[in-house]
C-alpha cells in the first residue's frame, strides 16, 4: 500500500485507502462479537490461509482489500488530475478515494443542498462531495491558500461543475466560519489544520441544521507517545475532538478506519 505524509501524518493514497493502522485481517461474527466457527483463528498480524464466505462476517481489513477497492472505486480523469495537482502544489494531501466515496455517499444519503468544506486543497474532496449533492445545490469551501483555490476551480470545471455550483472563500477557517449562516447547512466536512479541529466542531455544529452531518478526515492520528503529556499538538487536538464527539449526547457518531480515519456525526437537534 502506498502511503504519503502531510504534516507528519500518513494518508493512504492507494485506491483502497484502508487506514494503515488497520492493515491486518480479522474475521469476526459481528452480532455475536466472537470468532466465526470454522474459520481460521485469526489474530492481528496473521495472514489468513483462506477466506471463507460466512454470513455476517466482517472483513475489517485485509491485504487483498486494496486491490478489490481499487477496482471498485477507480477515479476518473478529473479526480486523478486534481490528485496530481495536489502532489505538485504540496501542502494539500487529498482524501483517499474511499474517503471521497464515503463523503459522496453521505451527501447523497441526506440529499445535501448546502455543504461547507474546511480545507479545499486542490479539489479532490470537493469533486466527490459535489457528485453526491443534489442538482442545483451549492458547495462552499474555505482555504487559506489562494493557489489551492485556483487549482480547485480548474478541477471543478474539468469535472463539469459550473461556477454557480460552488463558492470558494479565501481565508483562515476560524475567521471565515463566523460569517456563515447558522443552521443553514446539511453537511460540514473538515480537512484543514488539525490543531483547530475542536474549534471546527463548535463552528460546524452552529452551521448545521438538525439532522445535518459533520465529518473530519485524519481522525485516527498515529499516537507515537505513550505519555499523553508529550503528545504533539495535532495528536492532542484530534484526541480531544474524538472525546468531544463521543461525549456529546446530541451527536450520533461514527468512526470509520478508512483513509486517515473518517469521524462523522449526525446532529440530532437544533
Ligand atoms: C489536507 S488539505 C485538504 C485536501 C482536500 N480536502 C482534498 O481532499 O483535496 C488541507 C488544506 O487546508 C488548508 N488550510 C490549512 N490550514 C487552514 C486554515 N487554518 N484555514 C483554512 N484552510 C487551511 C491548506 O491550505 C490545504 O489546502
- Remind me, CATH topology of the largest domain? Rossmann fold
Oligomeric state of the chains present here? single chain
Alpha-carbon Rg, integer: 19 Å
The CATH architecture of the largest domain is: 3-Layer(aba) Sandwich
Find the count of extended strands (DSSP E, 2+ residues).
Answer: 11
Helical amount: 25-40%
Distance between the termini: 42 Å
Distinctive features:
two-stranded antiparallel sheet, seven-stranded mixed sheet, 270 residues, alpha/beta, 2 domains, binds S-adenosylmethionine, Rossmann fold, disordered N terminus
Short structural summary:
With 270 residues, the protein is an alpha/beta fold. The longest helix has 15 residues. S-adenosylmethionine binds next to helix 4 and strand 6.
Describe what you observe in this structure:
It contains eight helices and eleven strands. 32% of the residues lie in helices and 21% in strands. It is an alpha/beta fold. β8 (185-190), α7 and β9 form a beta-alpha-beta unit. The chain is globular, with a radius of gyration of 19 Å. The chain has helices spanning 65-72, 77-89, 97-109, 124-132, 146-158, 173-176, 197-207, 233-247, and strands at residues 3-6, 9-12, 27-29, 57-59, 114-118, 138-143, 166-170, 185-190, 208-216, 251-256, 262-267. The strands form three sheets. Strands 7-6-5-8-9-11-10 form a seven-stranded mixed β-sheet, with helices on both faces. A two-stranded antiparallel sheet has the order 1-2. Strands 3-4 form a two-stranded antiparallel sheet. The chain folds into two domains: 6-49, no CATH class; 72-267, Vaccinia Virus protein VP39 (Rossmann fold). α2 (77-89) packs antiparallel against α5. The structure holds S-adenosylmethionine (SAM). The site of S-adenosylmethionine (SAM) has 25 residues, from α4 and β6. S-adenosylmethionine (SAM) binds next to α4 and β6.
